Amino acid sequence: MAARKRIKGNLSLTEVSTRQKHLTKKELELRNTCSGPVCPPVPMKLRRSNGKELFNFHDYAVPVYFQKEIPLSAIYKKELKLTYMEQVFENQVKVGEGSFGNVYRARSKEDNEYYAIKVAKNNHTSYSEKFGEVLRLEKIEEHERCVKYFLAWEEQGHLYIQLELCMTSLDKYAQQNHYIPEQQMWDILIDILEALKHLHNRNLIHLDIKPENIMITSEGIYKLGDFGLLLDLNEFKNKKNHHSSVNVSEGDSKYLAAEVLQEIYTTASDVFSLGISMLELATDLMLPTNGPLWHQLRSGIYPKLFEESKYFTINILAM
């Protein structure tokens, strides 16, 4: 088999664009393999570090909180040989799975309402890594355009987080709908901008905005969710001054602003991530994870698919 030819010399991003092509998701579905030169990798992870700390495990449910205590359900009895989930919830169905753990849809026996229960994997090495998401959720404060947080508890070494249940994610919706009308695009943009304003006014940045983390309610409202990478800029600056950093996590390189790779964190990085998410939705574009095409999108070189889009006229390029 002949060796794959490499790109020789120093080519500009524009020259490389003649050799590589942005694909729509629909086109990608029709192709079994990708051809073309191998793209040089781009660092994808937001590296964070913390010293290892010890934390206790409980056979019974214990509420987890940092700022304000949220009590467990009154119907829970720890002396019973049943978990909190078994005592307080019913009709449990797994609706999601990822590196973080599993998400279940479950109905509360208290109010008969359905909730999303996120169950984190028990593979953490420090207290802050395990329970840090709870602290971040508490900092956000309730807002109508952010997925609502209700309660967190620890039991048998696992962290459980009770959240508002939404109908689906924007990512799953877009997989079934390759064409999204302009008015709907405006609705998405305005709803998530309201969520960002809420965060940024509190000096918080999301750092992981993408269609997968934008949820859709049964009323057609778009809400920002998954605050696992949320960063408090005030705390980050203080830690940086003391030569320390935040806990290990990673973002999705397809939506990442270039400056984040240099550990430059500002509210503008969220705006970029939202903008490139809107570009993806408007054009059905398959965003690159690395390489020349990745750099083009962050250097003002945009695909013709976007320029020719007739149904979404907002100037996303300005974002």
Automatic annotation (TrEMBL):
One of its GO terms (biological process) is negative regulation of G2/MI transition of meiotic cell cycle. The keyword Magnesium applies. The keyword Ligase does not apply. It comes from the Eukaryota. It catalyses: L-threonyl-[protein] + ATP = O-phospho-L-threonyl-[protein] + ADP + H(+); L-seryl-[protein] + ATP = O-phospho-L-seryl-[protein] + ADP + H(+). Pfam families: Pkinase (PF00069). Its EC number is 2.7.11.1. Keywords: ATP-binding, Cell cycle, Kinase, Magnesium, Metal-binding, Nucleotide-binding, Serine/threonine-protein kinase, Transferase. Residues 89-319 form the Protein kinase domain. One of its GO terms (molecular function) is ATP binding. InterPro entries: CC_SR_Kinase, Kinase-like_dom_sf, Prot_kinase_dom, Protein_kinase_ATP_BS, Ser/Thr_kinase_AS. ATP binds at residue 118. One of its GO terms (cellular component) is cytoplasm. Belongs to the protein kinase superfamily. Ser/Thr protein kinase family. GCN2 subfamily. PANTHER family: EUKARYOTIC TRANSLATION INITIATION FACTOR 2-ALPHA KINASE EIF2-ALPHA KINASE -RELATED (PTHR11042), MEMBRANE-ASSOCIATED TYROSINE- AND THREONINE-SPECIFIC CDC2-INHIBITORY KINASE (PTHR11042:SF183). This is non-specific serine/threonine protein kinase. It comes from Agrilus planipennis (Emerald ash borer). The gene is LOC108741899.
